[in-house]
Design a protein that fits this description.
Elements lengths: L15 H29 L4 H9 L6 E2 H8 L3 H13 L3 E6 L2 E9 L1 H15 L9 H15 L11
Antiparallel strand pairs: 1-3, 2-3
Length: about 160
């Protein structure tokens, strides 16, 4: 498949504010399209987007208390309880007593949950919108998006 490379014009059209506004509108449109595609793929797995995100946030190798999942999802614990109920009913997660603190229960991803989680990760990592980009363009896009998401404060690498 031939890739079309987008080149920057010699001088930008419009002022910085107009360029930024156009870029933001396009980013929001892209995000919406990606979200719709992901929701479609996740629905085909028999999950709601919220339940899939909860499963996605759980580390299969590290049991997690529900309150920590709520923090990761940035939502109220009562909402997490309903999500975990659905995950548990589907056989994807089990609530278990924490051996370190028997008053607390942790969430453990089951074998079936591990399989479904891989498929959720695949659904959340692919996008038909990126298919037309060359590897170099995709790398450039990732660098720009990373720069934006870091808000000017890149993470310190483990090597430093």
């Amino acid at each position: 498949m031939a890739h079309r490379t987008i080149r920057r014009a010699g001088s930008p059209k419009g002022n910085r504010s107009e360029l930024a506004g156009d870029a933001i509108r396009r980013i929001m449109q892209i995000a919406s399209t990606i979200r719709q595609d992901q929701d479609t793929d996740i629905t085909q797995l028999g999950l709601t987007p919220a339940v899939a995100r909860a499963l996605y946030e759980l580390d299969p190798d590290r049991p997690l208390p529900a309150r920590e999942l709520a923090e990761q999802l940035r939502c109220d614990r009562s909402n997490v309880t309903a999500l975990v109920d659905r995950l548990e009913q589907a056989g994807l997660v089990e609530r278990r007593i924490d051996p370190a603190d028997r008053r607390q229960k942790t969430l453990v991803v089951t074998t079936a949950g591990r399989r479904v989680r891989v498929r959720v990760q695949q659904a959340m990592s692919k996008s038909r919108l990126l298919a037309g980009l060359s590897d170099e363009e995709l790398s450039d896009l990732r660098a720009l998006v990373t720069k934006m998401s870091d808000r000017g404060c890149p993470e310190v690498s483990a090597a430093e």
